[in-house]
Write the structure tokens for this entry.
Amino acid sequence: MRAQWRTSGAAIAAPVAFGRRRPRWRDFDLVVDLGEEVLSARWWRGSATLGLLCAGVGLLAPTPFEPLPAANVERVGQAEAEQFRDIAIAPLSAGSKTGGRMAATELVEPLSQAPDRPTIELFARMGAGDGIAQLLVRSGVSYAEAGQAARLIQSAAPSGIAPGTSVSIRLGRRSPGGVRPVERIALRAGLDINIAVTGGAGGLSVSTSRIAIDTSPLRVRGRVGDGLYWALRASGVSAPTAGDYLRALNAHIDVGGQIGPDDRFDLIIANRRAATGESEEGPLLYAAIERAGASDVKLMKWTIGGRTDWVDAEGAGRQVSTMAWPVHAPITSGFGLRVHPILRFARMHKGIDFGAHYGSPIVAAADGQVMRAGWSGGYGQQVRLGHIGGIGTSYSHMSRIVVAPGTIVRQGQLLGYIGSSGLSTGPHLHYEVYRGGVAVNPLSVRFASRALLEGAQLEAFRARLRQLLSVGVKKA
Ligand SMILES: [Zn+2]
């Protein structure tokens, strides 16, 4: 094509052409299409190049040519060959030994009548969003019987059947109508109950059998090592429980920075173990960490006033008589009348201000419960605690809150960090104390000497703790 293009180009350019273009080195082309301009000089040159290349390959090639060695040079013996043939999947029509000769041959005579199987046994699995009646209908049970069986199973297991439950179904001899009646439906409705529905002359009837359950909790202890989370997981603690444990500890210590490799974790988890071997993990009941270089943290789940929370096992009966300062900083503005720095008029300052650096930790002034945590108008990010004796405290203008409403907090427990949210001129803590809902001077408050738990409740708490800690150790 190049020659043609040159010719036509020359023809168009002829009127303005000046002399002849000198042949250039680029025009000499070794790669020639042997399908074009056959027997031309160019073609011969191409053929010669090809011939020379082939001869070159012939000269350079190793002699004699040998097959490349394959991966397996060993010969397969007779015994192996037979074994291979037996386990190989060969076409059944070719007489494979895997399934016998299945295809019909001329020797096969069709029967005029085949006996019906007297019973059929099926297994079906409950899917998500599936119903027992639908499952039975899918398995060939009549609508009437499926509905009846579903009602019987529902009455025996009111909490329903979990998805994934396997149901064993036995259907009896086909009726003239073509439907097989239910002989038996059996399933494990839960960890502790087996349900069987049996068909008979009088219709379907249900029976249940209980499986013995051991409810003693599981205790898991071990060394933190390289990482607490993975140490827990390696000890057999499930991911949600490990998460619960870390969250429980995090309210009391900095799990990221205050735990070393030699510290030891200690968890007690509710557990149900069936006599047949299966077990079901329940919630975390006790979370503790024994720290080599710092105080231990021991928390037990406990319900106070209808709320379940983590309660410090050792501090539950501790007497609280004074309030602590919520932040380690000087007081920059006291309680009383003053000119508001933003609103510019005299008004009552209902609390005291602490001037502290942005991000300094704010802790609970006394044991109590978080009543609210979140944005509160001019107060910005605010936490309010309720304490014993009708006393409340509030912590305002925070940059970040780390407690949730309902949390039971110990004196000195982290609530959040200093900020300047809401109506504020700079990072500080505005701290208020209420008695019976009225703001009082925080410096005047003397706390009644009462504990978070006392009397019978404290006794019950301690008894439960003793009972839990007597649980055997699963892993050391
Ligand atoms: Zn203030």
